[in-house]
Amino acid sequence: MPEKLFGCCLLWSLFCAYHVVAETPPSTDVDVRPLTAHSRYDEIFSTTLLRDFCVRRTSEDVLVFTVASNETDGYKRYISSVDTYGFRDNLNVLGMGETWKGGNMKANIGGGYKINLLKKALEDYKDDEEKIMIFTDSYDVIFLGGLAEIVDKFKSTNARILFSAEGSCWPDKSLASKYPAAPQGKRFLNSGGVVGYLSDIYAILHYAPIENTEDDQLFFTRAFLDEKLREEHKIKLDHKSEIFQNLYAAVADVELKFEGGKASLVNTVYNTSPLVLHGNGPSKLFLNPLGNYLAQAWNSETGCAMCWENTIELDKTLPETYPIVVIAVFIEWPTPFLEEFFETIYDQMYPKSRLHLFVHNNVEYHQPTVDEFMKKYASEYKSSKQILASDKVNEVDARNLAMDYCLLKQCSGYFSVDSVSHLDNEYALKLLVEQQRGIVAPLLVRPNKMWSNFWGAITDDGFYARSFDYMEIVKNERRGLWNVPFVSSCYLINATLIANKETRPSYSEEDLDTDMAFAYVNRERSIFMYVSNRVDFGHLVNPDSYDISLMNPDLYQIIDNKLDWEKRYIHENYSKNFDPDKIPIQPCPDVYWIPIVNERFTKELVQVMEKFGKWSDGTNNDPRIDGGYEAVPTRDIHMRQVGLHESWLYFLTEYVSPVQEHIFTGYYTSPIRALMNFVVRYRPDEQPSLKPHHDSSTYTINIALNKAGVDYQGGGCRFIRYNCSVTDTKPGWMLMHPGRLTHYHEGLRVTNGTRYIMISFVDP
């Protein structure tokens, strides 16, 4: 044991012995008086100070080595874990900035270059029998503890060299039979982690020469299997992952454990707490989500520490300092609520003098909306470019052109936004830029669904799998910045990735769609993709049922895209109907007048009906209803005829029923029933009025669809029992009144123009 380490441990032992005595209850035979809180000894033997002292003294005797040629995302994560546990000064990074000479280790064996680099680095320590070194890989390694803990566990093994262990014999399976028996645990050597005394490691590094492109793990395996070398240098394997946890073929062995909000890793098979985590082989995709939590990256009490690494803050008073960004908009399929989508793009609180705009529209139907936006706002951006639907540029080519446009404009960031992505947070782009990641996406979710723009995990064949934390992230029960294997729809890319042909995103890969290809290529290149839910960024619209063959197709989207439908069509004062101090307007006894939809809704519904055009003939014969007989016929079109019946029932449930329950207290029905939902048309030369009648309903709603005194003269509704008429109806306002028995009524004559009303008989 090194002298100074021995001294530290002796000091620690004395401290512990002192406290055992001090905390021993006094007996009748011995009067043990603990030192008081004011004692100078307590000041000297402070637990925290002494432990820090021992760790510091221990760390001075440990060298840490790794090999990395580039500062990849994985390397940055490795360094972050080193910094977390405070031993950056002990770290020696070999090969940084130099050409990698170790072969293509993904495609084949290799890595001998690492051994040759390490040989050279250890020349000055070849005779040091006391100093300890740790060697690990870097890109796929995370430290989970400090050097003192690692050294302590290493010394308990009585080894001079301790290699990590795994369950498979690689790269030469034929050597498996030559391994000594392991009573418990993983049997085979893995070269991604080793701890030992410098002189011993130096010796085995030189037991045989190795070419740069030969395999490092095979080299160490042969050294271990040489019985003489193994005995001479006390080479052992970390069979039960006391220090090193390799994940390949052992993913099921580990789980995250949260104590006091802090995440740690436990090997549940051997009941150990590893201190170095290695995502060897294909297990890197499982390492990434673990890395979201481990090494103090996130905990439930303080949140996401990783979120603040390398972030910047843009000064809104200095817009000229904002990085140049290209916003690339892609409309690749028919998308509902495109107007609102463009509004969220325009509303981003990022200086337009620092933004270039690129738009690719692949849907002819949407071209007028795109043209209107470009005409109104394009001149405000630093520059703009549009690819029209008529240009017939496919999606892959368009995305490549957009990245080229980014480079042409010398951009710092490339913000790709698909038309399904609504950035309701006006600071979304600014926050993503400040995050300073290679690829980062804002979390976007279909409202009230679990469908989002990221995957937490993938299957072996590259398709969606639900990660252990997917639900918590999507529901925002865990906030943070998450390394994930797939993002789509909306993301910011650092332009340095685009400028480098080795890292430039690709949207074409065999038979994969563009989203799958983009994520797959990034994963293969070990480029991390992050999704952030630090704040609420926005939402996704659902285009699955959007049918542009319909007149006003957004009107049909109330079920699949309720949030956007409501923003577009519900009356701005609808929520005031529920104010406790508001007295509902009552133009006639038990007849209530309520704002419910806006004029855009009324106009679009009339357009739908007129486009359909098959108004009933106003006679008593009506094959659309049961029995084929209508006692009080009108000129009308049923919602069922234009494909809006189910949507309208949903409207009644979501918007009408709450108002009814608020006003006509005590009456509640679910699910709501309404067999008759129809738009009526009154004209002087067609059907100008309607005779007195009772409605076949518990209550009726009557929504005016155009303007009295403007679109028509006359008209209105007279409640005969009360001799009370409502004639000054307003578009989008609803009359609600009881149907049977009490509210006998008639439709007053229209003298000029055309009057439209929407009628529903609720609970017939």
Which characteristics define this entry?
alpha+beta; 764 residues
Q: What share of residues is helical?
A: 25-40%
Structural class: alpha+beta
Hey, roughly how much beta strand do the residues contain? Answer: 15-25%
The tally of helices reads: 20
* Shape type: elongated
Query: What is the arithmetic mean of pLDDT?
Result: 92
Instruction: Report, as a whole number of angstroms, the end-to-end distance.
Output: 91 Å
Number of strands: 40
CA-based gyration radius: 36 Å
The quaternary organization reads as single chain
Which spans have pLDDT < 50 for at least 5 consecutive residues?
1-7, 9-53
Strand order of the largest sheet: 16-15-14-17-25-19-26-23
Major beta-sheet overview: 8 strands, mixed
Textual characterization of the structure:
The longest helix has 20 residues, at 3-22. The chain is elongated and about 110 Å long. Helix 1 (3-22) packs antiparallel against helix 3 (47-60). It is built from 20 helices and 40 strands. The chain is an alpha+beta fold and 764 residues long.
Could you provide a short overview of the structure?
This protein is of the alpha+beta class and 764 residues long. The chain contains 20 helices and 40 strands.
